[in-house]
């Protein structure tokens, strides 16, 4: 078996290619610099330049160099005993790859702790022209970390190229809200990004590509992406609510004075926003329903949810930046939950498409629900959660918010009836715009 | 068994204590806010304030609040099957804990991937007054990541308090070189920090505490720390050269077109600086000596070493900040190497005290050498490396640099004969000052 241990590519826009200086080529006998044109689908007209990685990464990058740039190490496998149990390489595309969350996540992915020690991966990293050198820096650090499972790294700025063949797309990048920007402006500006990325995934990703949207507003961004990727399974879209779930478990553990691991069956319902519903009705502590353990109903109803929803804002206030590390941990948790059989009586939260959902939620939303998995990467919505009146009212509230968000992005959803954007209030998670 | 799942403390200077508002106390029944005075050793007169964690971390911190601050969750263990195989909690002190390297490392430590899934740990984090809120942010993110093995987190700014009872001290924090600062100034300013930390470790750490110095100039900082900690075993001091080793392995893998894992017996000799000696004479690729595989002697002698030594600088140039993630990975690698039996015929690099070394290096330096471990946390220097003339000359060069560094810090080494500081050239690793 030949192994591609790691490789770096720059996949870029339709600007004219510049060939990297040929003297770089001589440095690596196997991963030599190759410039080859690759016909794209016409929309971008991009080309692909295959370049050596380590040889070029520490060399100065040419000004304006902005196209598919691949450095490939295609190595002799001297360790057949290491690789004989390895699965087929998984292609994982990550957007916002030069950002803080990715800077934690990529190393977790490459180490094998997320997808398993027998799962080689190829990272396909999307950045922006501005972040290109930072992306190259990340690729160099991944190299220096000697992860045998990391077989290739590609870098680019055109989603249509970066997403090619992806088995997973972790959509982390989104524009933060600028000064004076209203929430509906943010919905629009990020919605456009996710519409483009949805189309790109539809055109070039694996036909069973799974998508996890982290960039906010993540539920509605996922809805837009999904609507623009009609050929991909709708159930494959996820919006991240695992950080909320983790925070909710943490708060219940603290409140009850029990191990984190004692808190099970914890669901976040609805939107990853301040209207989210951390469900203490169905959650359990030490196998007992939460209200039987935490007898402080007022705390559960009035303090618990804001504690969870405002945790990110509290963190921002502490140190002026968002919770990159714990977000990355929660993304890893999310992915692991899909590749590990869910223990009986437990669940995990993920924002998924609501079509056919058993809880009467509008059937065209991305809505966080209690799910379980057989460990095959797929999931099912658990259908026997108790919805009492309190929970029902809260779920209604977060559903209504998502319906309003959907109304604001009708112009980004092919075939949608245009509605009027009625969002005036600010329900973004503080600090997580 | 009761478990302390995680707890946060602020251990500070000798400023007058301010009691946290008592209304915080009511929020957590078990992890309640306690203010207790604790007699310190007289040098600092510090006191210890035990405070609840989650309850206070998201509450505004009082101005000037600057003393031992502990938030403790002392939880019922509902998972005896989880913990019955757990070892005794290891206390790991980390300096520069609010910095980028730590921001990666702490999550690796807490997850169990470094010390093992049966090794609960207590993190004792040293920051500065300026970084206090950032430290609290890190503690909050660690909470939200739900690591069962993480049993306590303490935060503080006084090493004499933070290092109390530490089994490991990971000394990451150091002052970077400011504009116009000469290398000898840097040696002095950081040397003072490490002299203080050495004294603190000597007074309060576990009698078998192990120290890993990451803050540069790490070899000489370790020497200073060691000299100021006469009651701790000198062999327990390490200076990090594992990132250099990893980079060297990466470059040899690239050059030879082989798996990373094919490169073994890779040693860095000497100083973590541009005079370091990545040893291609003894290193092997696929079981063969490197020169038998990479037949380009000129590359090995003239390009390989600068490629390794200048990698950090190349990264800085790429994205304007240092290689925090891969440094954290290499710290984790370093620690794992001490707790995993070294495979026969392999080694790892660490800067250790040279007393009694088999290679004729001056016996009062911290010098990177080929080492092996039985996996018990201790190590031995491998004594059968071939030192040819080329290697001998290179080792001499890095030794001479370390002798010069030692001459410049005689005022920080108790009992040292004063020598004249002769350092004029700049041998810092680029970007890693």
UniProtKB/TrEMBL annotation, chains A, B:
Location relative to the cell: Plastid, Chloroplast
Alphabetized UniProt keyword annotations: Chloroplast, Disulfide bond, NADP, Oxidoreductase, Plastid, Transit peptide
Record-level Gene Ontology MF annotations: L-malate dehydrogenase (NADP+) activity
Transmembrane segments: none
Residues covered by the Lactate/malate dehydrogenase C-terminal domain: 241-409
Enzyme Commission numbers on file: 1.1.1.82
Biological process per Gene Ontology, one example term: malate metabolic process
Ranges where the Lactate/malate dehydrogenase N-terminal domain occurs: 90-236
Any one cellular-component term (Gene Ontology): chloroplast
PROSITE patterns documented for this protein: MDH
UniProt xrefs under InterPro entries: Lactate/malate_DH_C, Lactate/malate_DH_N, Lactate_DH/Glyco_Ohase_4_C, Malate_DH_AS, Malate_DH_NADP-dep_pln, Malate_DH_type2, NAD(P)-bd_dom_sf
The organism's place on the tree of life at top rank: Eukaryota
PANTHER family the record matches: MALATE DEHYDROGENASE
Family (UniProt): Belongs to the LDH/MDH superfamily. MDH type 2 family.
NCBIfam families: Malate-DH_plant, MalateDH-SF1, PRK05442.1
UniProt name for this protein: malate dehydrogenase (NADP(+))
Organism: Chlorella variabilis (Green alga)
């Amino acid at each position: 078996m030949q192994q591609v241990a790691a490789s770096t590519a720059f996949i870029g826009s339709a600007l004219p290619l510049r060939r990297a200086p040929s003297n770089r080529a001589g440095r690596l006998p196997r991963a030599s610099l190759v410039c080859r044109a690759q016909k794209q689908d016409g929309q971008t007209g991009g080309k692909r330049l295959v370049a050596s990685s380590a040889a070029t990464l520490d060399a100065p990058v040419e000004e304006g160099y902005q196209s598919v740039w691949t450095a490939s190490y295609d190595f002799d496998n001297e360790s057949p005993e290491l690789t004989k149990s390895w699965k087929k390489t998984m292609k994982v595309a990550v957007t916002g790859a030069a950002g803080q969350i990715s800077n934690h996540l990529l190393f977790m992915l490459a180490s094998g702790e997320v997808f398993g020690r027998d799962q080689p991966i190829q990272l396909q990293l999307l950045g922006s022209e501005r972040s290109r050198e930072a992306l190259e820096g990340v690729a160099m650090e991944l190299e220096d970390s000697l992860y045998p499972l990391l077989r290739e790294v590609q870098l680019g700025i055109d989603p249509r190229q970066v997403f090619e063949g992806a088995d997973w797309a972790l959509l982390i990048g989104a524009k933060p809200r600028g000064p004076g920007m209203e929430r509906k402006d943010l919905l629009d500006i990020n919605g456009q990004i996710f519409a483009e990325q949805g189309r790109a995934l539809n055109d070039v990703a694996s036909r069973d590509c799974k998508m996890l949207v982290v960039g906010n507003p993540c539920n509605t961004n996922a809805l837009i992406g999904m609507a623009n990727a009609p050929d991909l399974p709708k159930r494959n879209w996820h919006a991240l609510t695992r950080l909320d779930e983790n925070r909710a478990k943490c708060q219940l553990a603290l409140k009850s004075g029990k191990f984190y691991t004692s808190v099970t069956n914890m669901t976040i319902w609805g939107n990853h926003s301040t209207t989210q519903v951390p469900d203490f009705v169905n959650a359990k502590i030490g196998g007992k329903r939460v209200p039987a353990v935490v007898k402080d109903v007022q705390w559960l109803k009035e303090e618990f949810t804001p504690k969870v929803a405002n945790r990110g804002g509290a963190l921002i206030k502490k140190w002026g930046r968002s919770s990159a590390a714990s977000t990355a941990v929660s993304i890893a948790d999310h992915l692991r939950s899909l590749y590990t059989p869910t223990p009986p009586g437990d669940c995990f939260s993920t924002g998924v498409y609501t079509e056919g959902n058993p809880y009467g939620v509008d059937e065209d939303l991305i809505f966080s629900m209690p799910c379980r998995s057989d460990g095959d990467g797929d999931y099912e919505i658990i259908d026997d959660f108790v919805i009492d009146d309190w929970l029902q009212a809260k779920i209604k509230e977060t559903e209504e918010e998502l319906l309003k968000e959907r109304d604001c992005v009708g112009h980004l959803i092919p075939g949608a009836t245009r509605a009027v954007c009625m969002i005036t209030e600010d329900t973004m998670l503080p600090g997580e715009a």
